[in-house]
Amino acid sequence: xxxxxxxxxxxxxxxxxxxxxxxxxxxxxxxxxxxxxxxxxxxxxxxxxxxxxxxxxxxxxxxxxxxxxxxxxxxxxxxxxxxxxxxxxxxxxxxxxxxxxxxxxxxxxxxxxxxxxxxxxxxxxxxxxx
Length: 130
Description:
- It is built from 2 helices and 8 strands.
- By secondary structure, the chain is mostly beta strands.
- A hairpin with a 2-residue loop joins strand 4 (75-79) and strand 5.
- Mean pLDDT is 89; it is low at 125-129.
């Protein structure tokens, strides 16, 4: 049976199952071009972080815009001039290109990160929530 083009543009999955395959990233340039999750426009990451989980190193020289949204828990996003504490589901922080950042999970936390554009060389060579 041959799949139609429309059928090949549909993907049904579960973030907890799919995320570990690409260090949490569910969508981006790094997916195969024939995978509906392939995108050069945007990347989406599902992150589950135990209490005390901390990014090992700050991100420096980022060239993209990112939005990190809290699904559950209590999560700190560390920025050059301040720390933003996300406490209520739906709280988010957005930062633009060139903003260094890091993070720490104060409580077990689930976050979704969206960043754009999706540039080769980043998602799988840089670690962390974003």
